[in-house]
Design brief:
By secondary structure, the chain is mainly α. It has helices spanning about 10-25, 25-40, 45-55. The protein has one domain (about 10-80).
Length: about 80
């Protein structure tokens, strides 16, 4: 097996270190697993960002067809 040295931002390093400690494996094992998972997961951009957009369970079912939902669209919040 080859060795690769990388520099990681402190938060990412802490996350990897914490995961390794809790699972009682090496940090290298955590990084290898994540790299393998990223390689095999062929996700669309939408599926990778979906949790950042909105929860469709909370939206009205007619949001795209009912003009009432667009009534205040484009106005400043102070104007509403």
């Amino acid at each position: 097996m080859k060795t690769l040295t990388v520099k990681l931002p402190d938060p990412l390093f802490a996350e990897i270190e914490s995961a390794a400690r809790s699972r009682k494996v090496t940090k290298s094992e955590i990084v290898r697993e994540r790299l393998e998972r990223a390689k095999t997961e062929k996700q669309s951009l939408w599926s990778r960002m979906e949790d950042l957009v909105f929860d469709d369970e909370t939206l009205p079912r007619d949001i795209s067809s009912n003009k009432e939902h667009m009534r205040d669209y484009g106005k400043n919040r102070a104007d509403r």
